[in-house]
Amino acid sequence: MQHLSWPIFRVTEKAALAAWPEVGCGDKNIIDGLAVSAMREELNTLPMQGKIVIGEGEIDCAPMLYIGEEVGNGQEIAIDIAVDPIEGTRMAAMGQSNALAVIAFAPRDTLFHAPDMYMKKLVVCHQAKGCIDIKLSLSENLNRIAQALNKPLSSLRMVTLDKPRLKKDIEEALHLGVKVFAFADGDVAASILTCQRNNEFDLMYTIGGAPEGVITACAVKAMNGDMQAELIDYCQAKGDSENGRKIAQSEYQRCQEMNVKINHCYELDELVKSDQILFSATGVTSGDLLRGISQNEHTITTQTLVINGIERTTNIISSQHYR
User: Fold this and answer.
1) Are 263 and 283 found together in one domain?
2) Interatomic CA distance for residues 141 and 155, integer angstroms
3) pLDDT (tens digit, 9 = 90+) per residue, 149-196?
4) Binding residue per annotation — 186?
5) pLDDT category, 57, cuts 50, 70, 90?
6) What integer pLDDT is reported at residue 81 of this predicted model?
7) Does the annotation list 165 as a binding residue?
8) Could you tell me if 283 and 302 lie in one domain?
9) Same domain, 27 and 164
10) Nearest CA-CA partner of 234 in 225, 245, 226, 220
11) How many CB atoms lie within 10 A of CB 70?
12) DSSP strand E in the chain: where?
C-alpha cells in the first residue's frame, strides 16, 4: 500500500486538471465525464489490482467509474477503491466553491460495498469518539456530543448540507441553540474539517451519497475521528412518490444482492475494516478545505490533501505545472 501514497495524489490531481477548464460550463455531466476519463487513465497505470467497490454516477445517470470495475495494471497488491471523480459536480458546473476530486484506497475486502444510494452520516472529532448513536434522534446526539466535549449546546458547531431533505434537522439543531453551518454541497470536505485537530466544527451530520460516505469513512478513520452511517432508500431521502417507490424497490433488491442492509447502523470499523488507508483530494474550485486550481501566464497551480493512514500523516501538496 505504501508505494501507492504518491501515485494516489497524481490520480486526483489529473482528474481535477481535466475537469477544471470546463468549470462554469453549466453541464455537470461534462465536468464528471472529463474527470472520470482522466482518473480511469491514471488508475490503469498504477501497479495494483484495483477494484471499484463503491463509485459515483448511478443516482443521476452521470458518467462513472462503475462498481465492480477493475483498474490498475494487474501487478502488486489487490486494492479496494472508493471514488467520486468530482465531489460537487453541480458546484463545478456553476463555478461555485468546494468542488473536489476525491479517492480512497484500502486493502482488498476492507471497504464497505454498497449501491450508489442515499446515506445518513454522522461524524465527530476524536474528542467525541464513542459517544454517537445514529439510531437516536439528532437532538439526543447533539446533547451527547456537547457533554463529551464539555461544551454548552450554544457553543456546539454542526456542519451539514443546505438541502430540502435536511430542513427539519437544521431547524431541530437551531432550536437547541446549536450553531449550524450549511454547505451547498461537499460532505467529504465538511467531515475532514470536523476531524482536523484544529477543527472548525464539532460534528458533521447529513444525508448524502453513499460513495462520499465510504470515502469520508476512510479519511475519518485515518484521522482518528468517529463515524456512523445508515443507508436509506430514495423515498426516505427525497419524499414519497410513484417514481421514488420504484427507485426504492430497486435499491432494496440491490442491497439484498450485495448483502447490505437499509436502515441499519454501520459503525466506522464496518465501513472501513483496515487502518492501511490512503486518501487523496484535489481542489477544483476553492473552498473551505483546499484552494482550487489557478493559473497565470506561465503556470497552473493545484493543491492536494493526502491522508496516509499507514504513516498517520496528513500532507497538503501544492504543485506548479509549467505551461
Assistant:
1) no
2) 15
3) 999 999 999 999 999 999 999 999 999 999 999 998 888 999 999 999
4) yes
5) very low
6) 96
7) yes
8) yes
9) no
10) 245
11) 12
12) 49-54, 70-71, 78-87, 100-107, 118-124, 157-161, 179-183, 203-209, 226-232, 265-267, 278-283, 294-295, 299-308, 313-322
Partnered with residue 106 across adjacent β-strands are 80
According to the annotation, is 163 in a ligand binding site? yes
Reported as a pLDDT band with limits 50, 70 and 90, residue 59 is very low
Q: In the structure, what pLDDT confidence band is assigned to residue 56 with cuts at 50, 70 and 90?
A: low
- C-alpha to C-alpha distance for 287 and 200, rounded to whole angstroms: 14
**Residue 164 marked in a binding site:** yes
70 is in an annotated binding site: no
pLDDT at 60 over 50: no
Measured distance CA(252)–CA(153) in Å, rounded? 37
Look up the pTM and report it: 0.92
Q: Is 95 left (phi over 0), alpha (psi -120 to 50) or beta?
A: left
Domain harbouring 173, CATH code = 3.40.190.90
Instruction: Find how far residue 293's CA is from the centre of its chain.
Output: 20
Q: Which domain holds residue 179?
A: 118-271
Annotated binding residue 88 = yes
Terminal CA-CA length for the chain: 32
Find the mean pLDDT for residues 55-73.
72
69 is in an annotated binding site: no
Q: What is the helix (H) or strand (E) element at residue 189, kind and residue range?
A: helix 187-195
Domain count for the chain: 2
Q: Is 267 annotated as a binding residue?
A: no
Confirm whether residue 118 is marked as ligand binding.
Answer: yes
